[in-house]
Amino acid sequence: MRSDPFAWRRNERARRPWRDSDWRHWDAAAHPECAEPRRRGDERALRREIRWRRRLAWHLLHHRRHHQGGSLGGRLLATFIVASLLSIVLAAVALETVFNWHPSLALSHGLGQQAAWIESHLDFDAAGRPVALREPADTAWVYTAATRDWKYRVVDGHGAAVLSSDAGAPPFAATPGGFDGTREHFDVVDDGLPLHVLTRPLEHAGPQYYVQVAISDRAAALFSGAAVGPILKNALVIAAISLVLFAMGVHATLGHLLLPLRRASDAASRIAPRNLETRLSESTMPRELRPLTRAFNEALDRLQQGYRVQQEFLAAAAHELKTPLALIRGQVELSESDDRDLLLADLDRMARQVHQLLHLAEVSEAHNFKMAEIDLGPAATEATTFLQRLAQRAGVHLDVRVAEGLAPRRADRGAVFVLLKNLIENAIQHSPRGAVVTVDLRANGVSVRDEGEGIPPEHLPELFKRFWRGAARRDTGAGLGLAICHEIALAHGWSLVARNGTVGAEFLVSFEH
User: Fold this and answer.
1) What is the mean pLDDT of residues 467-496?
2) Separation of alpha carbons 179 and 200, rounded Å
3) Would you say 504 and 453 are in contact if contact means Cβ atoms under 8 Å apart?
4) Lower Cβ count inside 10 Å, N or C end of the chain?
């Protein structure tokens, strides 16, 4: 019989239903062994655990949503856009509510505007009595062509109509008792047509007068449908265009406001062990971010101090070891021990390592370099001449090729000598007898090629690390020579890479980093 591959899963679910969906399977039908009825306390505990798990899941989701990394500018822009959209929607809903559910508000506003227009176009005589309505040519047709739907009256304090859109017509009255100046809004029926009337005092110096304006129910409905609808649509279009322009303006503003942050980020990314003295500028940062910038600079101060102490200790230890090694060597040379040659070889190796440690401490500090315009050709020739005897003992021929017309370069002559010496020495140590080590100096860089076995691909990323040594290495070095070369190249703004050629390995120093 075949085994059930999912038995472990069902057993795990039976032991502990960790997901809410598993609680649905936690019943007597799926688990006959649990068919006995549960007690009331067990059911309450089960419901409490379900609620606790759901609450925990909600808090985890909320924390992930609000605490994950993201763009500050994007968040601010999204906040502005959402707030603007909500404002537009609320304004549209408010206008729609006013015009559709409370048309009297819009009607009152329209009648008030009509009464104010009449007040502003009245002419008065010397006694302060209104004598005529000065109507512009473009609006004169309103009270002549639509006499039944738009009307006005100018009434004196005694209730007599002084001016009227209908010649000789009496004032509008809310009750049969006659005109009442205290009734501001009311409805009347004139010639079988319902009218909405507004009465308000006339503001002028002189006797008391009142202005009455009226609009028919059908004219008000026509105005609401023909004017209010397009106004709402145009308002929404204008709001949408304004939102786009506003978003563009906010985006540009945020870009300008966040520019100091981007500059500070670029400056921080350029800080390396060689320029730990660099600090972020607090004056260009917003006031809210200055404490963070100050704390970052203080952290750099502590880091620089620790790095300086480390480099000083390295240099001091190397210096202190040179004298004891020289004394021990002198004693060994004067002795007649059988292990004299072996001890001298060990001392030479220790002295070499101490010398390399001192070099490494020196080239790790930028202020130790003395830059000047130098000719790299003589430097390459000098390094080759210095290693000529080592090459002869190893049976390796040195081939130096210097291109003609090389322009001087700004560099430290001593550091360039150490760089080339270490690369050439490394090539000699990895070349078989009878091989050729080629030093090729060109305008854009210098390369050192050997004819050895090459470099295993997995070792290429490790070559320039301090104290790294390959498993099949034949020399007795400490693994610092290539690390020193890498530090010198970085100090000059050059790049140093290693690669395998058709025969052997090649180290390339590129001046165009």
Assistant:
1) 75
2) 12
3) yes
4) N
Q: How far apart are CA 293 and CA 410, in angstroms?
A: 35
List, for residues 125-143, the tens digit of each pLDDT value: 888 888 888 888 777 777 7
Are 425 and 390 spatial neighbours (Cβ–Cβ below 8 Å)?
yes
pLDDT of residue 513: 62
Q: Mapping DSSP to helix (H, G, I), strand (E, B) and coil, where does residue 427 land?
A: helix
> Three-state SS string across 445-486, please?
EEEEECCCCCCCHHHHHHCCCCCCCCCCCCCCCCCCHHHHHH
- DSSP string for 286-318: -GGGHHHHHHHHHHHHHHHHHHHHHHHHHHHHH
Q: For the stretch 421-442, what's the b/e string if a residue is b when 16 or more beta carbons lie within 10 angstroms of its beta carbon?
A: bbbbbbbbbbbeeebbbbbbbe
Say how far residue 38 (Cα) sits from the centre of its chain.
55
In this structure, are residues 111 and 198 in contact, taking their beta carbons and an 8 Å threshold?
yes
Length of the chain counted residue by residue? 513
Strand order in the sheet with 495-500: 397-402, 436-442, 445-449, 505-510, 495-500
Q: Which class for 199: exposed (0-12), middle (13-18), buried (19 or more C-beta within 10 A)?
A: buried
CA 471 → CA 11, 456, 458, 474, 479, distances in Å?
A: 51, 11, 12, 9, 12
Average pLDDT for 428-445? 90
Rounded to two decimals, the pTM is: 0.43
**Segment holding 490, helix H or strand E:** helix 481-491
